[in-house]
Backbone:
């Protein structure tokens, strides 16, 4: 979120390693004041500040690193950028207003940047993204599982029932997709947003 910090990070990596081959943009998150929970927090009353901060974190938190590190890749005429969108971009979640909108913008930005970098700075620069489904982490565990029993909450159960693999994702489930898209094995893949969701996006509910 701070261009100066990003530029200093780039300089530190260049000094130690000589250059940057990959950029993984993993900044993201949501805020209570950007989440509609009627009747106590209706959509119509969500404050601009909360909405702006959620959008800035998820969207500008992706664009700014792409500017700083992408310029370095443009100078080298090679590199791979991997952004993180969300299943909320494809199927907006109830209540999650700014997060869903921002992740949809990350999806769009990824495809735009893939074309821009290849056309303007060289076809060896690739830009892709992953769109994680529902992963059980410390950040959302209280929303998806009962703290005492570990059983899914009503929201968690609805997610599992709509996921053909019938489970939440674990962080390590992302590793293969990330390594593949950053690696030479994906050298002919750019502008792709890969769902990593246990089939959630493929299932229509019937």
Residues:
């Amino acid at each position: 979120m701070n261009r100066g910090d990003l530029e200093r990070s780039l300089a530190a990596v260049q000094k130690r390693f000589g250059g940057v081959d990959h950029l993984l943009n993993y900044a993201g998150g949501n805020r209570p004041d950007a989440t509609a929970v009627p009747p106590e927090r209706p959509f119509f009353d969500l404050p601009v500040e909360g909405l702006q901060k959620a959008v800035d974190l998820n969207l500008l938190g992706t664009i700014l690193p792409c500017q700083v590190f992408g310029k370095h890749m443009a100078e080298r005429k090679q590199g791979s950028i991997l952004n993180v969108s969300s299943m909320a971009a494809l199927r907006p979640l109830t209540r999650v207003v700014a997060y869903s909108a921002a992740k949809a913008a990350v999806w769009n930005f990824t495809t735009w940047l893939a074309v821009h970098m290849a056309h303007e700075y060289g076809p060896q620069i690739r830009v892709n993204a992953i769109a994680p489904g529902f992963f059980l982490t410390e950040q959302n565990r209280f929303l998806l599982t009962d703290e005492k029993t570990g059983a899914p909450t009503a929201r968690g159960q609805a997610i599992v029932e709509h996921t053909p693999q019938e489970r939440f994702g674990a962080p390590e489930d992302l590793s293969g997709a990330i390594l593949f898209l950053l690696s030479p094995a994906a050298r002919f893949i750019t502008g792709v947003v890969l769902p990593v969701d246990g089939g959630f996006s493929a299932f229509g509910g019937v």
